[in-house]
């Protein structure tokens, strides 16, 4: 079983109420829908406190081709629906390696499920399994209208196509993982669902609530 999620701290320089918040859910209330909101996550409270007293340009601007590009909230994409919705995400050590995935209720941050780590997997496979796991859970419990958010367009396509397209070879290490993939595909082929599956717009909304916080 995977360990607990690492604590992160969120600095809001410009937004509803500037300050330091200890959860994405609290930070989210002060930046979503606020034009020009400036915010960023930090791995320690000390770093967050130092950053809050500093110029946000040191932290939320990055250089690209000799120019500075702001990482700011873009209101043009709208806002996510945070009630009656689930977020799924996967984490993988490298392009391929130990992989795990989980799902959380967006409104409360409560973890709904977590699976792994599985040896020799990929992030897209984890995202795919996370979506199907959420679909199966919601169908079992009668949540027909609950939205599922993912930040992987590839996984969304695999779910629509009811098959995966991966270059990951099957081997002794990931044989169990491929069994789960086969089960997920079988579930999609033999079940219908009404739950919308939507893309989490990371650039506009920040990290998906199910993020493992290891970036």
Automatic annotation (TrEMBL):
Its cofactor is Mn(2+); Mg(2+). SUPFAM superfamilies: L9 N-domain-like, Ribonuclease H-like. Signal peptide: none annotated. GO terms for molecular function: metal ion binding; nucleic acid binding; RNA-DNA hybrid ribonuclease activity. The keyword Nuclease applies. It comes from the Bacteria. It catalyses: Endonucleolytic cleavage to 5'-phosphomonoester. Keywords: Cytoplasm, Endonuclease, Hydrolase, Magnesium, Manganese, Metal-binding, Nuclease. Pfam families: Cauli_VI (PF01693), RNase_H (PF00075). Binds 2 metal ions per subunit. Manganese or magnesium. InterPro entries: Ribosomal_bL9/RNase_H1_N, RNase_H, RNase_H1_N, RNase_H1_N_sf, RNase_H_bac, RNaseH-like_sf, RNaseH_domain, RNaseH_sf. Endonuclease that specifically degrades the RNA of RNA-DNA hybrids. This is Ribonuclease H. It comes from Flammeovirga agarivorans.
């Amino acid at each position: 079983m995977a360990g607990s999620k690492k604590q992160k701290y969120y600095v809001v320089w410009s937004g509803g109420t500037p300050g330091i918040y200890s959860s994405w859910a609290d930070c989210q209330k002060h930046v979503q829908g606020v034009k020009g909101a400036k915010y960023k996550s930090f791995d320690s409270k000390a770093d967050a406190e130092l950053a809050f007293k500093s110029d946000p340009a040191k932290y939320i601007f990055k250089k690209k081709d000799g120019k500075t590009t702001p990482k700011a909230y873009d209101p043009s994409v709208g806002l996510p629906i945070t009630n009656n919705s689930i977020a799924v995400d996967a984490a993988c050590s490298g392009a391929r390696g130990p992989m795990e995935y989980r799902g959380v209720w967006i409104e409360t941050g409560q973890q709904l499920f977590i699976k792994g780590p599985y040896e020799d997997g990929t992030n897209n496979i984890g995202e795919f399994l996370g979506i199907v796991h959420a679909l199966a859970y919601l169908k079992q419990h009668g949540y027909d209208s609950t939205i599922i958010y993912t930040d992987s367009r590839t996984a969304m396509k695999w779910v629509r196509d009811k098959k995966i397209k991966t270059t990951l070879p099957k081997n002794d290490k990931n044989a169990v993982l491929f069994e789960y993939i086969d089960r997920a595909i079988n579930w999609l082929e033999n079940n219908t669902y009404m739950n919308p599956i939507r893309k989490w717009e990371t650039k506009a909304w920040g990290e998906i609530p199910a993020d493992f916080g290891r970036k």
